[in-house]
Specification:
The chain has about 425 residues and is mostly helical. The chain has 18 helices and six strands. The chain has a three-stranded antiparallel beta sheet with strand order 1-2-3. The longest helix is centred in the middle third of the chain and has 27 residues. The N and C termini lie far apart (about 65 Å). The chain binds carboxymethyl coenzyme *A. Carboxymethyl coenzyme *A binds next to helix 17.
Length: about 425
């Protein structure tokens, strides 16, 4: 098979050959870079349904087969055998670490968990009822004001330390957002804890009492972080890449990723699922909500169902579904009425032709909120949990992109359908 695609422009009769590029997995792509220069056309693909925005060696998804690989390793194997620290190392460094490399990486991260004391002043500017994601966007963006003199993005050592700082500080910033919202003092990180354990400690301990870390909660959170660590070129990762492509400060780029993640079609879905379950309230109301989800005149969607890429099953959902049962029974929450409601809703939707024919299966966020709820994490922190884990993916993609010698600013084109050229009319002559 020739490694090119022949494109014939039936309007002009011109023929051009476009190179066909093959990745390790996935469909080949043809390189359209010369299309405009040679034929005078742009391509049009709103929502990027058929467009590869970059090449990347971080994560692979096969949506038809329900496959997710981090640096080639199946998510199921990582979920069973690995830890968040190890997965973070893998995503950032291309290979699984040796014990010495993992110890060194863990130490490096733990050396950067504290935030500058003056950063705390930013929190005071937020009302106590500010959404923690709003605080995250602001405070993470403001980190760019602290390390600007050591963040030369063209220096690989600076890129590395910026990425480590982002990963290390995210739980501290997130926990402080929560403490601010409930009026409790901020808790300093304790570096002897695991990444997830440290977050739980900073969220739930108070200076007046001893804190006992629950190993079930720590293990569950670590696994959720592994499952959420990266997901190739999703909306927030693409946002980080696009912001980063201009040479912007990395902390500002991560803040832009947090903003993109917040929406209910993306990371905000875990919060939306719980709010939806609370609204449905009772199993007897399920048919009404299923009917609303199917009604095109009703904006309601079944949150936690469907995925742009997975048209078989979200492999993360399978793993987290099993964990959900385990965690709820270990923490004594198995009789949570919302859990029963969720299972019933899942069953009804999976047997409904509307959802079956559109391949709308429960995604990872259908279950993650139920686990967060069992761990005592408040609903408005759910998307923050996602942001903490995904920071590793954002950092890995940002590093990969900036490290490319041929890296250029991302600058999409458009199909302009506004008014045609027209001349200015003096105000007194306008009707
Ligand atoms: N409930 C009801 N109908 C739906 C849903 C849903 N959750 N999702 C998609 N559909 C329908 C949609 O109306 C359309 O129907 P038709 O073909 O008759 O017009 C069809 O299914 C295809 O939908 P789409 O909007 O073209 O699909 P998309 O790929 O653009 O959107 C999605 C993917 C995830 C945004 C969407 O499925 C959705 O809004 N789901 C609910 C939000 C959610 O759970 N998001 C979390 C995604 S997983 C976490 C992450 O990776 O960020």
């Amino acid at each position: 098979m020739p490694d090119r695609v022949t494109l014939t422009d039936s309007r002009s009769g011109k023929v051009i050959e476009l190179p066909l590029l093959h990745g390790t997995h996935g469909p080949p792509v043809f390189d359209m870079g010369r299309l405009y220069r040679e034929l005078g056309y742009f391509t049009y693909d709103p929502g990027f349904l058929s467009t590869a925005s970059c090449h990347s060696a971080v994560t692979f998804i096969d949506g038809e087969e329900g496959v997710l690989l981090y640096r080639g390793y199946p998510i199921e194997q990582l979920a069973e055998h690995s830890s968040f620290y190890e997965v973070a190392y893998l995503l950032m460094n291309e290979a699984l670490p040796t014990q010495a490399q993992l110890d060194n990486f863990t130490t490096l991260i733990s050396q950067h968990t504290m935030i500058n004391e003056s950063l705390k002043n930013f929190y005071r500017g937020f009302n106590h009822d500010a959404h923690p994601m709003a605080i995250m966007v602001g405070v993470v963006g403001s980190l760019s004001a602290f390390y600007h003199d050591s963040t030369d993005i063209h220096n690989p050592a600076h890129r590395e330390i910026a990425a480590l700082r982002m990963i290390a500080k995210m739980p501290t910033i997130a926990a402080a957002s929560y403490k601010h919202s409930i009026g409790e003092p901020f808790v300093y990180p304790r570096n002897s804890y695991s990444y997830a354990g440290n977050l739980l400690h900073m969220m739930f301990s108070v200076p007046s009492e001893e804190y006992e870390l629950d190993p079930v909660a720590e293990k569950a959170l670590d696994l959720i972080f592994v499952l959420h660590a990266d997901h190739e070129q999703n909306a927030s990762t693409s946002t980080v890449r696009l912001a980063g492509s201009s040479g912007a400060n990395p902390f500002a780029c991560i803040a832009s990723g947090i903003a993109a993640l917040w929406g209910p079609a993306h990371g905000g879905a875990n919060e939306a699922v719980l709010r939806m379950l609370e609204e449905i309230g009772d199993v007897s109301n399920i048919p009404t909500y299923i009917a609303r989800a199917k009604d095109k005149d009703d904006g309601f969607r079944l949150m936690g169902f469907g995925h742009r890429i997975y048209k078989n099953y979200d492999p993360r959902a399978r793993i987290i579904r099993n964990m959900c049962h385990e965690v709820l029974s270990e923490l004594g929450n198995e009789n949570d009425p919302l859990f029963e409601l969720a299972l019933r809703l899942e069953e009804v939707a999976l047997n409904d032709d509307y959802f079956v024919s559109r391949k709308l299966y429960p995604n990872v966020d259908f279950y993650s909120g139920l686990i967060y709820r069992a761990l005592g994490i408040p609903i408005n922190m759910y998307t923050v949990m996602f942001a903490i884990a995904r920071t590793v993916g954002w950092a890995a993609h940002w590093k990969e992109m900036i490290g490319e010698p041929q890296q250029r600013i991302g600058r999409p084109r458009q199909l302009y359908d506004g008014p045609a050229h027209r001349d200015y009319v003096a105000i007194e002559k306008r009707s």
